[in-house]
Amino acid sequence: MNDKFSTLDGHIEKLIHLHQQTVIENKKLVELNSSLKSKIEEQNKKLLQVGEELKTAKSAQVIEAVGETEDKQALKNNITKYISEIDRCLAMLNR
């Protein structure tokens, strides 16, 4: 009878130890996950900033290229086209 209790006690000790290890590993994984989410959020902010800078640069290029040879409507159409293209690219990157 004591052998059965001894064996059961050994199994319980082993399970307690495994549970403690699992809790520690889970805590590390939660911290890693949080860190990675923060990095992703930071990268998304940088991506949006670069996208805005790209929109501005493209608009400036269009304005310079157009000069006085095209009318304002053509300029607006080109700007709208570039902005739509950039928005489409940003949407694809955020998937």
Report on the structure:
The protein has 95 residues and is an all-alpha fold. Helix content is 92%, strand content 0%. It is built from 2 helices and no strands. It has helices at 2-66, 72-93.
Features of the shown structure:
95 residues
Summary?
This protein has helices at residues 2-66, 72-93.
- Percent of residues in helices comes to over 70%
Question: Largest beta sheet, briefly?
Answer: none
Structural class: mainly alpha
Distance between the termini: 62 Å
Strand content range: under 5%
Unreliable sequence segments? none
Instruction: List how many beta strands DSSP finds.
Output: 0
Shape: rod-shaped
Give the ordered list of helices and strands.
HH
What's the arrangement of secondary structure elements?
Elements: H1 2-66, H2 72-93
Helix pairs in contact: 1-2
